[in-house]
Structures are given as C-alpha cells and as structure tokens.
C-alpha cells in the first residue's frame, strides 16, 4: 500500500482526489449511518464503507440514456447496457460514490442471465440502477412498473428505429445494422419469450446482427424508460399504472398465495 | 466538500483512510486502465473511478456464506442474500474496492425481480457477486453452472435443514421457524416455478413464515454453492458439469437459433 500511496500522491492532490472519487462523501456520510447494511454481530462494520442508503439522484436525459444503452449493448450486452447508461450519467452529474461502482458488474445478465433466457437482461440492468438511487419500497414499485411496461411494449420503439435508420447512435464505435426493424410485443419479461416472438415475426435468427441490433435498440429503450420513471419519481410524480391482464387477474383471484409472480399465466398454463 | 474534508481529517489519518476504503488501490490501478469501462467519445473517463476489471478474489468459507445468506434473506430478501454474503466476506478478507459497492443494490431481485416471479433472486444476487470477481467469459460459465445446478437441486439442502432445526443460524437477529422443511426440485431457475412446486409439496402458502424460511435456507444454499464454484475456479479446478436434459436437448437440435435459453422446454411447451 505504501508504494501505491506514493504513486498516488504524485498524481493527484488530496483535494482533487476526494473530489474525483467522492470518497470523502462516502466516509463522512458513512460515519453517520454506520452498520446499517451489516447483518449480525460477527460481521465487520467497515468505517470507510459506502453508506447503505439510496444514493443521490438528479434528473437525467432519457434520450441520452437511449444512446448510451444501445452503444453499451454492443460493448458488453443487454444487461450491462442500461446499468452503464444510468450509472455513467450519474458519474458525470453526481460523481462521488458512483465512481466506485464497477459498471461491468451487471454483465452476467446477458441473454436472460448467462444465456439462460430468464429475465430480460435490459430489465435486470435497469433494475439494479434503480435500486442504487431509490429506497427499497420505491425500488419495488419502479421496477415492477418497468417490467409491466416492457411486457406490453412493441420493441424496438419508433424513436430507436428512427435513430437506427438515420445512423444516429452517436456513441457507437463500430457499425450496426441501420435498417428499420419490425416490432413485437413479448407479453412476458423473459428474454426467451421476447426473443422467440421477435425472431418468429422478423425471420432474423438469434445469431444474426439484425437480431442483436433489435436487442440493442430494446436495451436503449429500456434505459430511456428507466430514466423517465426515475425522473418522474424524483419529481414526486410517479404513479404506477401497470395492471395484470384480466385473464391473469382471474387466475390470481384463486392463486395469489400458492405461487409468486405477475407473469401472464396462460403463456405456460392451460386455463381451467 | 471542504467541510466534509475537515470532518474527515478529524476522524481518520490519510493512511488509515486509504487502507480502510482501499480507494488508493482503485485510483492507482485505475490510472493504468483508464477508460476501459467507458463507451464512446462523449462520456467522461473519471480518473478516480474503480478499474473496470475483475476484482481480487480469495478463497471463502462456503459454510459462512450459508449462514450469512440465510440471515441476509430475513433482512432484505433472497437477492440481497448471496450478494451480501459474498461481498461482506470479501470486505473482511480483501477490503478495498468491496467497501465502496453498496450491498443493498441487489435487493430489487426479490421474488424474481420486484415480485414478478422471474429469475430466482438468490441466483441473481449470487451471479452479481460472481461477476464482480470473474472476467466476463468465466462469469458466464460459472453463473450458467450455478443456474443449472439450481434447477436440479432439492432445496433446502440437508445442511441448511440441519442448521435450521438446531437453531444454528448464528447471524440471525430475530427468530425463524426451526422445523425440518420438506424439499423440492424446481426444474426451473424461475422463482415462480420454484415457489409453486415447494408450496404444492409442503402445503405452506407464500405468505407463511415457513415458506419464507424455505427461501431463506435456499438463499444460504445458493450463496454456499456460489462460493464453492468460485473457490474451485480460483484454484483452477472449475469444470462445468451442467447439461440440459435429453428432452430439451432434442428440442434444441432444431430450436437453437430461434430462441434464447436453456430452460426445460416442456415446462411451458407441448412436445411435438
């Protein structure tokens, strides 16, 4: 550590160090809320640890999130995308603790968690970013709304298609297919269903660049929607609107307590 | 920031500050890998940001992970559980960058992502922890193996049941049901299926403390398994063993490219 310190002192003054990393905020605030994230008596309550509370949020630009999410998809996948989009903007606008959160940590969500086809990775990455800035109860409401919106939305959005056709995804470092893509509604938050439906409609198979571009635009769309929801929430104007469909509501009238979830029942089960 | 700095200087010396937060490591290392996590030309490459590379891993105790995961479930849910378990141990054994990663950020995964019933939250939280310590390609292999193992495992494990019956979950701060719990195999990585199958077998409905205790023990089991996989990987001994079942393999022989995923097909689809 001594050598690292010396190297560090040559590079940055203490003041600029604290400003850039924001670690002073973390430590000072941490001193006030010590131990709130620590379970049990035998675990260490590190005095320099980041506070276990929602981090500061400021209004962000959904259109910038759309561009960043799209570019980040092509870099490290669908789940990295919205997490990168939101956290990279918060690094620029807030800095501090966001600089110490590895952007790559949501990469595992790609393809519905390591290509298992479960939760859409874009939803997973966006949800993690929401959790960083919102307290737990608000996180649940915002994430549930985002997931519900996703299940009924025709991806990719007309905004993403328009940007794509015009070659306007400005952050991208390599070429991407610039055609107009057909849209599909997944009726499900699962990567498996979302991809299968779009592939059936478009004719572009999973390994094609067109299918990947569809998921890149979807990733941008989910990042933009997450930012819209967070902006509304920050302004005190967030209202949850998602409701399960009538068929599912009918199922849940008997099956509220013998399962967990809000996915459309008849996607997998026969009605009875 | 000036006031925060003054407050900070009263609390900790520069040396102990750097040691505890580990931020010196992040900055010094960050200087070597500037910008690796940043997409595009218009984004800021913060010089004090944590490096976008896998963080250091040291061998951890799976049995301690089981206890921490269980306790953390009762604090903030199934997805928080394994993430807390692994990262809190790494804070103690490695410190540094782990102190700056909010433990609460995986909470959103509860109940299969904000109670939607998609990916089991314990898998989601464990996968995020794996992503922190393993490069992307290794993360995909490790997470896929963890998910595959989960789909065929009878939860809760005999180890977790034995600890539970003996009242040995030492980190827990409040009482938990101490009975022997029946086990079930989910045949799926989804919270919805995992809970529905256990509820059908046990007769304990979703809101009961017994069902929650089942998920708490499962959370501990997933945390322990994640640590076992990481230890093997760190020792250069990890070998992926999961294979999809014969029926699913047969489906995939035609459907490898028109969908994404490894979930058992006949859970939702009729064979044809």
Topology summary:
Two copies of one chain form a homodimer.
Chain A (H helix, E strand, L loop, with lengths): L1 H10 L2 H8 L1 H10 L29 H15 L3 H14 L27 H13 L2 H17 L1 E2 L2 H8 L18 E2 L5 H12 L6 H26 L11 H10 L17
Antiparallel strand pairs in A: 1-2
Please provide a written account of the structure.
The structure is a homodimer of 272-residue chains. With 272 residues, the first copy, chain A, is an all-alpha fold. Chain A has a domain at 62-240. Chain A is built from 11 helices and 2 strands, in the order αααααααβαβααα. A two-stranded antiparallel sheet of chain A has the order 1-2. In chain A, helix 8 crosses helix 10. The longest helix of chain A is centred in the last third of the chain and has 26 residues, at 209-234. At the A-B interface, helix 1, helix 2, helix 3, helix 4 and helix 5 of A face helix 1, helix 2, helix 3, helix 4 and helix 5 of B.
Number of strands of chain A: 2
Quaternary state of this entry equals homodimer
What's the number of helices of chain A? Answer: 11
> Which range does the strand content of chain A fall in?
under 5%
Strand order of the main beta sheet of chain A, please?
A: 1-2
Most extensive interface: A-B, 110 and 110 residues
Query: Major β-sheet of chain A, in short?
Result: 2 strands, antiparallel
SSE string of chain A: HHHHHHHEHEHHH
Determine the mean pLDDT of chain A: 87
Residue runs with pLDDT of under 50 for 5 or more positions of chain A:
1-45
- The value of Rg of chain A in angstroms is 21 Å
Q: Tell me the span between the first and last alpha carbons of chain A.
A: 66 Å
Helix content of chain A: 40-55%
């Amino acid at each position: 550590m001594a050598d690292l310190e010396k190297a560090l002192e040559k590079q940055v003054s203490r003041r600029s160090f604290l400003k850039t990393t924001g670690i002073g905020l973390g430590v000072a605030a941490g001193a006030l809320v010590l131990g709130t994230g620590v379970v049990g008596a035998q675990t260490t309550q590190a005095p320099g640890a980041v506070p276990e509370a929602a981090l500061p949020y400021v209004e962000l630009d959904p259109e910038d999130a759309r561009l960043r999410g799209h570019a980040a998809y092509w870099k490290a996948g669908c789940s990295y995308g919205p997490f990168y989009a939101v956290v990279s903007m918060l690094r620029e606008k807030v800095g501090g603790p966001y600089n110490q959160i590895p952007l790559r940590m949501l990469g595992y969500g790609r393809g519905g968690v390591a290509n298992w086809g479960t939760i859409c990775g874009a939803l997973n990455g966006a949800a993690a970013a929401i959790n960083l800035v919102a307290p737990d109860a608000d996180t649940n409401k915002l994430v549930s709304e985002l997931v519900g919106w996703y299940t009924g939305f025709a991806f990719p959005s007309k905004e993403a298609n328009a940007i794509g056709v015009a070659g306007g995804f400005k952050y991208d470092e390599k070429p991407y297919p610039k055609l107009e893509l057909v849209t599909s509604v997944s009726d499900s938050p699962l990567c498996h269903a979302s991809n299968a439906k779009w592939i059936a409609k478009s004719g572009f198979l999973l390994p094609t660049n067109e299918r990947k571009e569809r998921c890149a635009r979807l990733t941008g769309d989910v990042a933009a929607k997450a930012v819209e929801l967070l902006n509304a929430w920050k302004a005190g104007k967030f209202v949850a609107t998602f409701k399960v469909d009538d068929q599912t509501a009918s199922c849940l009238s008997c099956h509220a307590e013998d399962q967990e979830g809000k996915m459309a029942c008849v996607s997998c089960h026969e009605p009875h």
